[in-house]
């Protein structure tokens, strides 16, 4: 089942906050506190490190779980990133493999520079 099929995420205004709210609503039945290696997920994140740019709404393929957090390929950046548990602002929303292309087509990445 693809929860994004035939669904129109409101991206007319290019408001990432509105898009992320709609995405979280569609994925609300697959919320997890911690992802597993191999999962695709999206979540809200607020990096604590000063003077860096980060994606507040990453879309990630999880490659490793650690006591401090997890590592994964961020599809919005196109490279591996680290996410610490203390900076997670939301639950983890699990994305099915058949939903990945639809999410990649939604411009909900929110790049912030601290």
Structure description:
The chain is built from two helices and eight strands; from the N terminus they run H-E-E-E-E-E-E-E-H-E. The chain has one domain. The termini are far apart. A six-stranded antiparallel beta sheet has the order 1-7-2-4-5-6. It has helices spanning 16-26, 100-104, and strands spanning 31-32, 40-42, 53-55, 59-66, 69-74, 79-84, 92-95, 111-113. Helix content is 14%, strand content 31%. Strand 4 (59-66) and strand 5 form a beta hairpin. With 114 residues, the protein is α+β, with helices and mostly antiparallel strands. The mean pLDDT is 92.
**Percent of sequence in beta strands:** 25-35%
Number of strands: 8
- Helix count from the secondary structure assignment: 2
Low-confidence stretches: none
What would you call the shape?
globular
Distance linking N and C termini? 38 Å
List the secondary-structure elements in sequence, H or E.
HEEEEEEEHE
- Note the main sheet: 6 strands, antiparallel
Q: What is the C-alpha radius of gyration, as a whole number of Å?
A: 13 Å
Number of domains: 1
Strand order of the largest sheet: 1-7-2-4-5-6
Q: What percent of residues adopt helix (DSSP H or I)?
A: 10-25%
What structural category arises from helix and sheet content?
A: alpha+beta
Nearest-integer average pLDDT: 92
At a glance:
With 114 residues, this protein is an alpha+beta fold. It has two helices and eight strands.
């Amino acid at each position: 089942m693809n929860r994004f099929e035939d669904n129109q995420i409101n991206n007319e205004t290019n408001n990432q906050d509105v898009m992320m709210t709609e995405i979280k609503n569609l994925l609300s039945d697959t919320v997890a506190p911690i992802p597993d290696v191999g999962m695709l997920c999206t979540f809200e994140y607020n990096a604590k490190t000063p003077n860096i740019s980060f994606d507040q709404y990453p879309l990630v393929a999880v490659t490793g779980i650690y006591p401090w957090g997890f590592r994964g390929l961020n599809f919005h950046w196109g490279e591996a990133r680290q996410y610490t548990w203390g900076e997670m602002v939301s639950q983890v929303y699990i994305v099915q493999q058949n939903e990945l292309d639809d999410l990649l087509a939604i411009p909900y990445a929110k790049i912030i520079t601290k």
